[in-house]
Protein: Glucose-methanol-choline oxidoreductase N-terminal domain-containing protein
Amino acid sequence: MAFHILLPTVLASIKAGVSIIGAGKIAILPFLLAALAYFHYDQFDPENKPVDRKQVDHEYDFIVVGGGSAGSVIANRLTEIPNWKVLLLEAGGHETEISDVPILSLYLHKSKLDWGYKTEPQDSACQAMTEKRCSWTRGKVLGGSSVLNTMLYIRGNRRDFDQWAKFGNEGWSYDEILPYFLKSEDQRNPYLAKNTKYHATGGYQTVQDSPYNTPVGVAFLEAAQEMGYEIRDVNGEKQTGFAFYQFTMRRGSRCSTAKAFLRPIRLRRNLHISLRSHVTKVLIDPNSRRAYGVEFIKDGRRQVVFARKEVILSAGAINSPQLLMLSGVGPAEHLREKKIRVIHDSPGVGQNLQDHIAVGGLVFLIDHPISLLINRLVNLNTALRYTLKEDGPLTSSIGLEVVGFIKTKYTNQSDDWPDMEFMATSTSASADGGTQVKRAHGVSDEFYNEVYKDINYKDTFGIFPMMLRPKSRGEIKLRSNNPLEYPLLYHNYLTDPHDVWVLREGVKAAIAYGETQAMKRFGARFHAKPLPNCKHLPPLTDEYWDCVVRQYTLSIYHYSCTAKMGPASDPYAVTDPQLRVYGVSGLRVIDASIMPTITNGNLNAPVIMIGEKGADLIKYYWLTPTTRKKRGLRAIFNMRLGETCPNITSA
Structure:
């Protein structure tokens, strides 16, 4: 087809791209979008985008709030029952061609696809950030944060889930949740798919290795071996060790949960999706304490829709507790303070906030032109290579190549439950000249210019030491009873000294990692410029590192545990192990909020698993005979997947 025929599409794509990431950020962007449009990029995807329903019906069997990593899964699985009608409400719109390109993920931060949250200023961490406020990126788009994340597929550790079960959450041990990881997965690495019981093919969620690695990536693995670590499948039998990352990609492009779980079923007549629909309240009868619908705003108009069976909150660990509190479920004193009628006093709502944080800005200079520099590797040739061959530098997830799980001295050395994750990247914050990476991380101009300006656009690699099991706990509170006001976010990072010690040891291990012979052969040397606020301390001492970890404190955007599940005996449990909200019938929370403790690694894969299991819990409840309901769920969980619902078919 002649290019002039596609010109309107090209121009529209360019306009959309500029509105998302800002004008003048990447000179190659127009060429990339033109190539995508000219070669009918969207037609390479076997499914088109779901249709946004302009007017919803009066009533549905289930209303799912939030179309992210859990909500997309739930909408898919519940509509497998032909006579169940499901409404999925999402505050954002569709993902775009720009969000498909792996290397551009940081350009989505603070865009129209991001809620753009910031924490309240606190002295314990994020001292290098503007106004001392951490940036908390959350996806405001169909697919949720799986559209903005770095696509890292990490399931967590066996001990995480066994610990959940020990807390009193029956059915959540590792052996019981592993089938749900397998149910979703379509593993494209043939070695992993065929040679282990820990992976599967044929699921909706595509997982693959990156099509592109730099020489630095291979050296990362050699450095790990030099330090005595094994190279392994970190989603397999053991976690301690190093590996190339596994990514939620499909043919070199992002495979969000919207693309994975919603596009293939977009023609199911019992699934309705309403985009740009901001839910403001769950409707709960104060007498019966039953959830019977939701209020939401679309196109500036307040609407109400009713649920015959259940309302399911999958709005994420910030928005789900916010909605619970706005609806009268939360700490009673706080709700009364905000002039909200208390339906159920649930002191755990918004509490127990956990997140993974890393020390940012650990940069190593190298002498060879092999790292990922935007101004060198993103050009017309690589854009065409990406469009035509589905590989090349644009398929790199912002340079993330290798992951390592190690143990500091603060954890049990004989157990396979590491407390530190290395995120090894063939680039750094200075590789783009202090433009988008600095902006995405929220680093102040003063801090960046003093520490990194003199190494702009130089070849580097970076190590992000990420603490896996923080002891510090944050909280979420309502700013007011206005549902359109962002909540108050208190990270409370590093308020427990244990977390400072673990991160300090992670920094020291990262520097040792960069000093291995495998990295030294590239001329690797640590960029050791003293940080503002820490210059008064002797360099490279424990006191100095304790100061450093409070400066460039980087959230890895793994907010969780703010509506935790637990037994009825736990006063701070918000849901039971079937994810039903205590004190209110017909209401569940199914997302990262329900985690009692954060898992060992990046959260997207566990949240997809929670969506899969949560959908089955709903099916088991509504499809099983009354006698089985009275017996409880123990017998159901002991059966193999599928045996309890033999008549389930796709619509």
Q: What stands out?
A: The chain has a mean pLDDT of 91. The chain has 22 helices and 26 strands. The CA atoms of residues 100 and 254 lie 5 Å apart. Residues 59-92+258-353+560-638 form a domain with the FAD/NAD(P)-binding domain fold (CATH 3.50.50.60).
